[in-house]
Amino acid sequence: MAQRTFSIVKPDAVRKHFTGAILAQIDKAGFQIVAIKKASISKEQAKGFYAVHAGKPFFDALTTFMSSGPLFLMVLEKDNAIADLRKLMGATNPANAEEGTIRKNFAGSLQENAIHGSDAEDTAAFEIGYWFAGYELA
Ligand code: CMP
After folding, report:
1. What residues line ligand 1, using a CB cutoff of 6 Å?
2. Residue 1's pLDDT band (boundaries 50, 70, 90)?
3. Catalytic annotation on 116?
């Protein structure tokens, strides 16, 4: 059954002009791009989005990085979208990412890892609702 997930092309990938190549890889893998918008988010917005990581040692660096430049916020749809996008992205740390994955191809480090994808149905629902209004997904 078609499922939606939330994804971000992160500021590092946008800065390096990898956006088009990453979207092509997502498109070719069979995802529908339900919605996409470019944004420059504030540190406060990043903190709200990553609230689950509040208190972790990398939280401040992560939210500073995510608010360091433009990014692309996306809602993607396909059968098994959440797991399939995680597989297509590869491991969080690009040093451990499999050949051909987006992070292997485009990520520079654990923090500057090119792309975000929701890890479960409840987080996908939270993340989509955090960045998109219902009318943007009709
Ligand atoms: P993402 O999938 O967006 O979710 C949280 C992000 O935190 C993750 O990608 C990484 O970019 C980052 N992250 C996770 N673990 C660490 C870590 N140990 N050090 C720095 N950044 C991390």
Report:
1. 53, 58, 62, 92, 110-111, 113, 116
2. confident
3. yes
